[in-house]
Amino acid sequence: MSRIWVLGAGQLGQMLKHAGMPLNLDIEPVDIESEEILPLQPHEQVTAEREQWPDTAATRQLASHPAFVNLQTFPLLADRYTQKSLLEDLSLATAPWRLVENDTDALALHEALGERVLLKRRTGGYDGRGQHWLREPGQDAVPLGWHQEAIAEQAIDFDEEMSVVGMRTADGHCFFYPLTLNLHVDGILMGSVAPLARLSHLQDEAEQMLAKIMNHLDYVGVMAMECFRIGDHLLINELAPRVHNSGHWTQAGANISQFEAHLRAVAKLPLVAPTVKSTSVMVNLIGVDLNHDWLTVPGAEVYWYGKEVRPARKVGHINFCLPDSAVTKAALDQLQRLLPVNYGEVLDWLRSQLH
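The structure corresponding to this sequence follows.
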């Protein structure tokens, strides 16, 4: 049994472990806070479920292993400044932006980027955290401690948010899942649906953009690219060099999940274009308590992460991949009765995408 170590033992690491079992791969997620010395062997491989990690005995050992796949990519894409610079160097469309330097003030950012400017911490920050809006030219200011630590982006009046998950083998073959349409509420992904026929005309553009990035980086495994749709074109928002929340639907809706695809690429096992079974929907479970009645909903595939429930924390997700939209809508109707009232907006949005 081949062993692959995963830097990080969160839900993504655990789902990688689950996906490795049918492939006879021993997947070992490692707690990033661990000071343990790992029985890491020279012939074994290392991957990661996250872009950043603290300096601990375990992470130092993993990050120094010669078979840590994509090791040089993580710091490049974890820093929004170097990530944006990469997109610019590759002539790929992204929101106009600036580095917030020591002498940068809010007025200069408004003059360069417009009335609404979004500051993003260069590292860390997710699910709407690590962000600050400048909306009042002449009155607002760059927060203390954000100079040299943030980028500024022009606010984009986009039509929709979507993502594409791609995969690349060590010998350079790229494959892709269909574009996924996403709903974010307060910066947190709440629901996804894929594939949608009305988005198919954007698929080639998405694949060309992501392939250009993966090929440039000589990347191996799964990478996600979050985009804004503006009319008939895409604008890249952010990249994730790992399996991604918006690809969770592939566990139900494709013959190869994003987790299996990543492991196949890292382990140099055969990788082919995934076959999509039907339109799938994913409901993210955010800060809600476990309810075993979710299991009574026809077609519900529940993934519970076993984490302490806290507000705004991802604690699980539910996938559906059913034969037609009417059956899926009926399942969402039943699920709505078992979720907090704020999920009405999410489920209404999901139902509105199904025809």
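The longest helix spans residues 203-217.
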